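Agenda item 2: shikimate-3-phosphate complex prediction
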Amino acid sequence: MPDRPVILTGFMGSGKSSVGRILAHQLSFRFIDLDAEIVAAAGCPINDIFARDGEEAFRALESEQLERFISEGGGVVIATGGGAVIAGRNRRRMRAGGVTVHLKVTLEQVLIRLHGCTDRPLLAGEKVPERAGALMEAREHFYADADIQIDTDGKSVEDVAAEILRCLKGLS
Ligand code: S3P
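Presented output:
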């Protein structure tokens, strides 16, 4: 098994947190949900960070927490937020310090899974399908850079975790 952090990337609603929890359990690794760490560090929900301080402030906190957990070394599965791949420094840090796993999801699935969700500030308001589609397209090439690509469509979170496990075994 990798001696570096296993880092899950992917669009909102791709299942990073649910899969990450299962995977960490199977590997007997610690599980870190980066969004939860950001909320703990900021002392308020993600919606409030965006509303009060703006996206840039959120991204700064995200980079800080990502750096913190990657620098702690292996034995951990980190579920990132969907936008963690935007910053070049995050991508370089993840590539150099971890094994990156992209959970691929279709726009259709994202819209089904996140329907009625109110805790994603980037998908609040009107024209959600259009905006989600544009965001997904803009990030696609960043996600494509991951060490491991996993299709999540039609699979349970347990199936996805098992597939990642097989891929990780293949790497070592
Ligand atoms: C974001 C994704 C969210 C969260 C924030 C921004 C994004 O995490 O970090 O709302 O830019 O895609 P999830 O991918 O866990 O929903």
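Discussion summary: The chain has one domain: 6-165.
Owner for follow-up: CH.
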